[in-house]
Each structure stands twice: as structure tokens, then as C-alpha cells.
Amino acid sequence: MDLVVTVPQDRWKDWLAEGDCADTPPSGREYEYTVGTTPPIARGERLYIVAYGKLRGYAPVTAVSCIRGAPGMRTRYFILRRGDAVACTIDEPIQGFRGWRTVWWPREAERPFPQWRDP
User: Fold this and answer.
1) What domain count does the chain have?
2) What is the model's pLDDT at position 19?
3) Is 96 inside a domain boundary?
4) Is position 118 within any domain?
5) For the whole model, what pTM was predicted?
């Protein structure tokens, strides 16, 4: 199941600096997006990114992992990705949100987004 997550505006530049963006060659590194609950996504599915009220693109998911906290601590879940990101958007504003959501638009609605980095 493809999912959508938000990168907060104050973290956008840091997120871009991590690497393996849509317009760069893959580095071979793996990156994680932390979520608070078990995400219903698997290897090969798409993790879409929203920032500044717009869909910015997606990256193929390589794995989902978790770190169980000590007694009384919460478990943290990670959606992992590496390279092969694609810049795309839809003709609909998307308000930022916490956590993840399932994709609600058809893939046919996606279009290229060359200015995806711009706030």
C-alpha cells in the first residue's frame, strides 16, 4: 500500500541535504522516515512526500523496520528508502499532517514536478 508523509517546513532543507533526491544519482545509502505506528507499506511500494502544501514526489520503499523501546518506552517504526526517487505532484493542495496516510489519488493524476525543491 502506498503511503504519504509530510516533511515539516522547518525540516525541508535538512531533508533535502540527506541525499538521494529525485534529481541526483543514487548513492547506495539508505534513509529512514520515522513514524509512530506500524505503517502498512512494504518493499517496492511508494512513500510519497508532502512539503509546503504540495506533493513533491515519491521514493520506492526498501524495507520497514522497528526498534522496540525499553519497558515503558514506545516502539519506533522506520520506513526505509534509497535512490530512485521521482519528482511528481498532483493538482491539489495537501495540508501537512502528522503520521502517514494512504494515497487517495489515482496514479494517473500524477504529473512531473521539475520545481519540486522550491518552497
Assistant:
1) 1
2) 86
3) yes
4) no
5) 0.93
